[in-house]
Design a protein that fits this description.
single chain; mainly alpha; Rna Polymerase Sigma Factor, Chain: A; Arc Repressor Mutant, subunit A
């Protein structure tokens, strides 16, 4: 086993479960997350000077986020439901389905964010990382990360509001 293979194996043991969890949350499908993990490690293996990467975890995380959003873009679901909030009278299974649909809408909207804004949004609101940790990973300061997260959240709200407005407009016209 060469140095690169040992480095990747060690990295897989240390960071694999966290990356897999993030991919599962981003794709909402464990099978797809496993497929993307394989793609991620193939991409990492194909990098010529892997040992020269300063922060391999941050680099792999960025690739994983991009893979997940590329997959969502390729396999977009066009089923739309009206904006709804979980109601305590709705059975628990139905509430989970509604929540999953709402999460899917947010992730679809997040696809439209620029690369760094999307990465900060995912790390903050999906991975639940602190601003300081995201700043360290992205080589920005915490204030810049906070601004990027705020910008991403505002843009996602705008996208979702536009989607809801067009949905209701279509429903009224039918």
């Amino acid at each position: 086993m060469n140095t690169k293979q040992r480095l990747l194996l060690k990295f897989l043991e240390a960071s694999g479960p966290g990356l897999h969890g993030m991919l599962t949350r981003l794709t909402l499908d464990e099978t797809v997350a496993e497929e993307l993990m394989q793609n991620l490690f193939i991409r990492l293996f194909e990098i010529k000077h892997l040992e020269k990467i300063e922060n391999l975890h941050a680099y792999a995380c960025r690739i994983a986020i991009n893979l997940a959003f590329d997959r969502r873009r390729q396999h977009r679901s066009f089923s739309e439901i009206p904006d709804s909030r979980p109601d305590l009278r709705i059975p628990r299974v139905d509430r989970r389905l509604i929540q999953a649909e709402e999460i899917a809408k947010i992730l679809d909207a997040a696809q439209q964010l620029s690369g760094l804004t999307r990465e900060c949004f995912v790390l903050r609101y999906i991975e639940q990382m602190e601003y300081a940790e995201i700043a360290k990973r992205t080589q920005k300061n915490p204030q810049q990360v906070r601004a990027l997260c705020s910008k991403g959240t505002q843009r996602i709200r705008q996208i979702l509001n536009e989607q809801n407005a067009s949905f209701y407009k279509e429903a009224i016209n039918e």
